[in-house]
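anyone seen this seq b4? input:
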Amino acid sequence: MVTKHSTRDPADTDLTRADSLAREIFSGVANKWALLLINVLADRTLRFTELQKQVGGISHKMLSQTLRHLERDGLVDRTVHPVVPPRVEYRLTEAGQALRTTVNGMCAWTRAYLDHIEEARRRFDSARAV
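predicted toks r here
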């Protein structure tokens, strides 16, 4: 059996280093728009306008930027159909689906601790208002 040795710099996977690739990737997917898009795409393929309708408050520019970033990182596939006008569709890749499991966990955590967080915020804000 041949063991493959990675030529990747171990610093690339260190989230604590400002110049690590892992930190760059984490930063890109750990923003509200990316998380929402990953959740909305779930098990379906959607067009740009359908995505914009599903994610309330996202601007055309931010949707374009976020989709481009997710596509660059291999989390979203973009398919352009050769029709007039062009029809563009987006779907999660295998890596995007795997990340969706983490996103679902974060959503479950939010639901479980929402009351706790709201109460903590009230206490914090009340203590600061004095």
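The helical segments are 21-29, 32-41, 48-54, 60-72, 94-129. Confidence is low (pLDDT under 50) at residues 1-5. kinda curious what u guys think
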